[in-house]
């Protein structure tokens, strides 16, 4: 059954207060999904180029972007991007190549001019571009640090001198202490005197991180920082970087096309599609409550099955789905209400591999038509009686051959239902990854 308000991504009073001002794109079957947000700020409409003229109130976020628009020549590349982060939070832009992730990051850094929108950081307005006024704080004055894809280290300088590079206004004693602190933070103290080319890729990446963190940036921007590293190293380094950012309470934004990296590092992930931020949410919310089939496809695996509205619930080949409310009776049992659609309305249902439990004792069975060995698990592709397919993640000691039937227990309270509007917004037929599995025969 669909849980109407499971996706409350707010985790603080101030965030909840702001959420009440948040415009939320809702469809009848996908209510309460938080989309890109607008902080409750009133910008004074004036022609002045002075920044920070408006009053800030206690609930203002540490970092926010409102309706950012960036383009090259006749093409809009970032279209109405809005988001916010609290201090110490890590955000991430996730999306296919060319969707505008790097352009958005560069515009936040001030390296690309915006055509519209406003950026605030730590109670300072950095850009404002609308019909009434236009100004932008210079990149060097934004207090941001950046880690690039290729690290951009100075090959002729030692690790310590690379890290000290942005500290030229510091006293030599302070600079020495800060470099030592950063070396220790990234666990490279014994490599202080080496040149970058004497280090591994992962170590170079950590030098780049230490160099960007040394001047204590108000916001750290990381553009595909792990893309030059091998896959195994990426995830462990992403967790390592998250640990460092959390220890230093650094607010950061990462750009990546790698979902695992995004989930390992970020508190909030924004899925981008053709310049638009489709959903800005916590990783678990993106996975369990994608706002559209596009997000569902991009984040995680799964299959779409058909459903149809009947007497207020959704009938599917896996069973009936009832609409659950965020209301419980005295004994703690959830309450249900009807879907607001006429009988016969077609529905699509997202079923994740973890929604289908293998259970030998179940009377409901499915035919194994494909499987992929993943060490601890098999990802099975299963055909239901009506010919539709779903995926199921099963512990790998359950070794079932292709062509056999296995018992299944669908966890229908976890599935996500999409209405026609959601479906029409995406070419969902391309979605079913089960047909793209490299199967073991
Ligand atoms: N300097 C530029 N001039 C003109 N077009 C550009 C420029 N930089 C980027 N673009 C275009 O803007 C679009 C978005 O590019 P961007 O680099 O932001 O995408 P991305 O999502 O970061 O992609 P990738 O993951 O491949 O780096 C692309 O179509 C790209 O060709």
TrEMBL record:
Keyword ATP-binding set for record: yes
Q: Region entry Disordered: which residue ranges?
A: 1-52
Stored PROSITE patterns: ABC_TRANSPORTER_1 (PS00211), ABC_TRANSPORTER_2 (PS50893)
Per UniProt, the ranges with Polar residues bias are 1-12, 28-52
- Record domain ABC transporter: where: 63-299
SUPFAM superfamilies in alphabetical order: MOP-like (SSF50331), P-loop containing nucleoside triphosphate hydrolases (SSF52540)
Q: Which UniProt keywords apply?
A: ATP-binding, Cell membrane, Ion transport, Iron, Iron transport, Membrane, Nucleotide-binding, Transport
Which molecular-function annotations from GO does this UniProt entry contain? ATP binding
Q: What is this protein called?
A: ABC transporter ATP-binding protein
What organism, scientifically named, is this protein from? Psychrobacter proteolyticus
